[in-house]
Amino acid sequence: MLTPTPLRPLSVLDLCTGTGCIPLLLCHLWPPGSTRAHGVDISQDAIRLATDNAARCNVPSFQPSSLTPYSQNVFVPVLGDLRNPDVFKRLLPPFDVITANPPYIPKREYDELSLSVKNYEDPAALLGDPPDSEEQDGLTFYHLISRLLTQKGMLRDGSIVALEVGQAQADAVEGILQQSAGLRNTQVWKDPWNVKRVVLARA
After folding, report:
1. DSSP code of 21?
2. What CA–CA distance (Å, rounded) separates 145 from 55?
């Protein structure tokens, strides 16, 4: 169980942060001054939205400059690409918690989505694979995340990785974390509709 405190704050990294809802929720739930979160996204629009949401939630979005205790939790949206590891070196790893709700919809499923979704959502935020990828199973971002997790110094001992997954992807993503990232301590959580929805791993 994670028990962050101002004297032992947790460092959180949210990948493909989008609106910033995951780190902002943690900033809301955990005690003031106990959480220092970063959210990375490749979209400038997403970073602006996450920054606006932080302001609406009264969560500061500035970069902590020291290890002294803070009176508030902090969420810093960062423009960056998962394929560029240098981005993460600037975010002061190691991290205690890494979360992600990445694009994971396969092309065949995207083509069948209703216009009420496709007309209002950026395809890049939904499609799980580049158009030129040989694999169109929606798992590209999980492979990228797995490679990121293997970088030296990214994960603190005992840290937690939590990844949202699409329908019927949980077993494959669990395998990616176990085999590619070397995270053997894994479990799968189901959503209220009994669908496997989150893969959790502990370093």
Report:
1. H
2. 28
- The two three-digit tokens of residue 178, written as one number: 């176990």
| Tokens at 34, concatenated | 């106990």
Per-run averaged pLDDT (10 residues), the chain, 203 residues: 88 97 97 95 97 96 65 94 86 94 94 90 91 89 96 94 97 98 97 97 96
Residue 145 to residue 73: CA distance in whole angstroms: 25
Phi, psi of 138 (to 5 degrees): 80, 10
User: DSSP character for 182?
Assistant: -
pTM: 0.94
Are 75 and 24 in contact, with CB atoms under 8 Å apart?
yes
**Ramachandran category for residue 164: left, alpha or beta (phi over 0 → left; psi -120 to 50 → alpha):** beta
Closest-CA residue to 163 (of 69, 70, 148): 148
Report the candidate in 48, 65, 55 with the shortest Cα–Cα distance to residue 27.
Answer: 55
Write out the DSSP string of 48-106. HHHHHHHHHTT---S---SSS--SS-EEEEEE--TT-THHHHTT---EEEEEE----B-
What DSSP character marks residue 124? Answer: G
